[in-house]
Design brief:
Length: 222
Amino acid sequence: MDDLETSLRLTAKRELRKRLMGLRKTLTEEGAAARSAAIVARVIASDSFARAACVAVFHPMLRRREIDLRALVAEARARGKRVAYPWIGDGAAPPCFRAVDDDASLVETPIGALEPASDAPAATPDLILVPALAVDLDGWRLGYGGGYYDRLLSSHPDAESIAVVYELQILAEIPALPHDRRVGRIASEARLVAAGEVARPAAPAETTEPAEPGVVRVRRPG
């Protein structure tokens, strides 16, 4: 990938980020809560969740209409699973996952997110639930631009990963960069699918029909 293509992809991702943040905020609190509940139900019913001993989640920033996974956290703990959250810290050390037994121990970061305390024990998740502003069906995701989850996914290559998004956040294509990391599965309120296994719809065929002499009308389905 040359410098020009990289620059164009970075610009495209910045524009997509603005649009998707705005689109997500159009959801009402009630609508976001209902969709989150459907997403949580799909993940809990999955084989990935069933076999995971440690599940990595994120605490939602509800004002941004992020997916609310708190019901999934409660179910994981009820089943005896370990729950971990991403720890970013001050950036001096690489991001990692830290185990949390009680969400009341989470601390607020400068951007208003909640993360584990710096002395919480490190954890190695079997399943990582990944936030995203958008994702495509090949598993490429659009985050906030910090690259934290790309590094977390890279440092846990054996963990299963599921991007949790609203259906409206699934796009035809996300412009990927060399440092980006794909997720293995995608969960929305409508479906849970493996990345790269969904057939993309073919472009609608054009047909012709006769009109006045010497004129041909092109008609596209729909």
